[in-house]
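S.,

As promised, the iron/sulfur cluster run. Input:
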Amino acid sequence: MSKRMNITPDSKWKEYPIGGEVLDAGNAADFKTGDWRSMKPVWHEDKCKHCMFCWAVCPDMSIKVENGKMVGIDFDFCKGCGVCTAQCKFGALDFVLEE
Ligand code: SF4
Ligand code: SF4
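Predicted complex:
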């Protein structure tokens, strides 16, 4: 178990890791970076051609795919960069303010 996983609400401040330190590798799945988002993509399934261009450019692997087709967006990790919306040529992705 990684050092950061031992932190509980009862931990003393000296037990906390120094801010910004990466304590171990392979931890990206532990941090739901979607919390940082101020904009978000909106997927219109009826317009989607499943070309997967959006999947190819998403830096956070947030385009969800099943059986070779797009099935949605993983908002736990989508950071709202908008790259996918710029890439979609079929009007299947809008880019809106996070409400
Ligand atoms: S780029 Fe647009 S049309 Fe292609 S899979 Fe993504 S949402 Fe669908
Ligand atoms: S907005 Fe950015 S992070 Fe979110 S799905 Fe699109 S490309 Fe990925």
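The chain has a mean pLDDT of 89. The pocket of iron/sulfur cluster (ligand 1) is lined by residues 43, 48-54, 70, 87-88, 90, 92-93 (CB under 6 Å).

- D.
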